[in-house]
Amino acid sequence: MGIFEIASLIFWANTAAIAYAYAGYPVAVWLAARLRPRRWKIEEMTPRVTMIIAARNEEKAIAEKLENSLALDYPEDKLDFIVVSDASEDATDSIVEAFPDARVKLLRAERRLGKTGAQNLGVEHAEGEILLFSDATTWYEKDVVRNLVRNFADPTIGCVGGMLIYRDGTNTSVGRASADYWGYETFIKRHESLAASLIGVSGCMYAVRRSAYKPMYPEACSDFLIATVMQRQGLRTVFEPEAVCTEETNETTEKELRMRVRVIAQTLSDIWRNRDILNPLRAGFFGFAIVSHKVARYSVPLFLIAAYFANMVLAFRSTGYAILFAGQTVFWGVGLAGMLIDRKRSAARILGYPTYFALANLASLLGIYRFL
Length: 372
Prior knowledge:
Layout: H1 3-35, E1 49-55, H2 62-70, E2 79-86, H3 92-97, E3 104-109, H4 114-124, E4 130-134, E5 139-140, H5 144-149, E6 157-167, H6 173-195, E7 205-209, H7 222-232, E8 236-248, H8 253-273, H9 280-283, H10 285-298, H11 300-314, H12 319-340, H13 349-371
Parallel strand pairs: 1-2, 1-4, 2-3, 6-8
Antiparallel strand pairs: 4-7, 5-8, 6-7
Helix pairs in contact: 1-6, 1-10, 1-11, 6-13, 8-10, 8-13, 11-12, 12-13
């Protein structure tokens, strides 16, 4: 086998892997949900709920968050709130303490615990049958609690994730692309839930059956790992699209990149620590979904690099490969340039997509490096 044959094999194998990660798996999970849907019982109910808000220096957002929470449509005597201040150094604590509603409680950690550690601490003091985890910057629709808890009428459900909608309040190119990408992720979540189980939830809003919650190690990405915690107990994690919350997108590529690198590194660490769950003989569709949705997706930059350099070799052989190589080069040039120029308003909408694609795959590459 000559150099061009080897390059061709590398190029097409990696191109197929990229296509599977972005299109093949969504089609597979859609088919699974359509052909063998696993529906669950949904029934109106009002169990005791404790909302746990992990907060670190959130003086700008915490008052509005608590006002939004106190206005939720749920019986007052069955809903309480714990704000876990993760060694905050601003006015977060005093703002929470000033709230007159007795259902709002402040729990301060004197040393940094991280989000997952703060959530674990909050659970220790929670009295609700259902635990609702929230971020301080997330705005909830009024019927969120009712829509989430009705899924717990089915005893096989351990965790329920809600619908996160990103708002691009500053109209940035990265914000628009991020919001659009989240729509694609939501499509996958809907069908994973119906086919078997979610493999993770949005960290700004998810509910857990108190009896099924297990403390997680502090460095865990809790909103990813919680689904594995449920899976190990024979419980499902499902998606509730009518429980809606909103958050602002990141305005700049720097913020988006930092966030994604951190989450990817944490998620890969969680997968490594729980790698036995990848075995389809043990976890069935759940393990297949983690490999396809997370491992394959995070590996895409490695496939892209291999395909790019194989294409470079093949460009010397045919005009078609040369055109394809030129197209890749222009696409990556536009994407990387978009990360370097003004991130806020100067980039046109069309530039947002190659920029966000480059950002997402750079984040995966850096996340893999940090994990290793």
